[in-house]
Batch of 3 targets.
Target 1
Amino acid sequence: MALSITKDSIDLGIVTRNVDKALAFYRDTLGLKPAGEMPMSGGGKMVRLACGTSVIKLVVNGRDPKATAPPGGIGGATGYRYWTISIDNIADAVKACDEAGYKVAVPITEIRPGIRIAMIEDPDGNWVELLQVEA
């Protein structure tokens, strides 16, 4: 059986220990737009942010998670290690992240002619790849 896809993008859930720090990164620094908030069972909450047609769901549980994902981005462990946002202002975005004190894990790098990436570490150690394709 194949999936019958009904949306042209995905929604991504990011579990965080501190939703305020996550919002400072994703909303205030990267500029993702608020798309709603809802309570979660056990006293937690979900804050949704729009990223194009995708939704980034920041989830904070009512109690701390039992484990923390291993640090180190792509080389740190298996599983979901980074996700990508396609943008047209990579230099400005990386500068804003750096000036706000976020770790630039991979500086702006041309990976193929006309394609540049950078990777930024969020407050929980997750990596976000910024990708710019020159027109």
Note: The first strand starts at residue 11 and ends at 15.
Target 2
Amino acid sequence: MIACKKILFFALLMSAPLSHQAFAIGEAISELASDVGNITKDIGKNVGVGATATEIDKDTDVALNKLFKGSPAAVKLSKTAKAILVYPKIIKAGLGIGGHHGKGALRKKGKTVAYYNTVAGSYGLQIGAQSFGYAMFFMDDKGLKYLIDNNDGWEVGVGPSLVFVDEGMAKTLNNTTATESVYVFTFNQHGLMAGAGIQGSKITKINPDK
């Protein structure tokens, strides 16, 4: 059962501005997930809260290797992509209201050039917890510039055209058929909540400790 103080927290949160709600919900996910999900023994440790740059890079290497082994389409796009933003582990949890939180690295030519977090808040009939990762392939300079130049954060769904790659699309996707600005691959999805949508989440540049 969720502690009374958490119920009070969410009740007070409902009266706050939506932007504050989304951020606060996302930042609270590592604690909430231990109550409603327990999807992994170390779910709180892996959420990315407080992760150092070294830890994010290490997890990014592992995530990309797994993605490339399981998706020939991702390998093909990586050869011409301007950059790839990788979130190795995102925790999504909810009980009526919820959200997600994670930290990742922006890679250009195999090297990290910046770090970003992602937070989101949501409402509706939802209960449980879920972990997943995703990688955003920026295929043109315009899309990448939009990410880099938005110092206040990028709300996914606004700006560059974005396509989620499913199994069917992955079979035909290559550098010739890839005509959109950004392609998103999700991976390592585990947990109780259906879907791993990132629409409406906010991506913001961060400066983690080394």
Note: The first helix runs from residue 4 to 13.
Target 3
Amino acid sequence: MAFSAPDLTQRPPRSPRVRLGGFVVLARAIDKGRATIARKNGEYHFDCPLDKMCFNFIGITGAALKKELAKGKSDSEILAWIEKTAKHDRCAGTIYLWSKLMEDRAPTSVDTRGYYNELVKACAPKREDIGTWFEMLDVDDYVTFGGKP
């Protein structure tokens, strides 16, 4: 089945902040999944650790989502599929709180802080205002496609 897939060699996926069905990360994961199926994912990885955090919270697997995306389903059809098949039945309040927690998430251990600092240094070496994972991803996407940090 033919479907529209973003070309992630030309532009980034949606920000991890974009909410779909209330879930952060999901829209980005869907973009990466569609691009992977179309072999247009560039350096982006579908089912990465951040995607897995979202999938685990929802109660789906990356493989199952990718199978549904390969059928050409729209975002709204994917949400309907999630509602029907997810292992966890999350209420709107729980989804909101989890999404807010994810949005505000920063590296917490010495190991992840060092890794995070290297990522920030690579994309925006002079910026000192980047403190969360989502902020780092947004800046990295912006700089990767020609923006000035």
Note: Helices lie at 26-37, 49-58, 62-69, 75-85, 92-103, 110-123, 133-144.
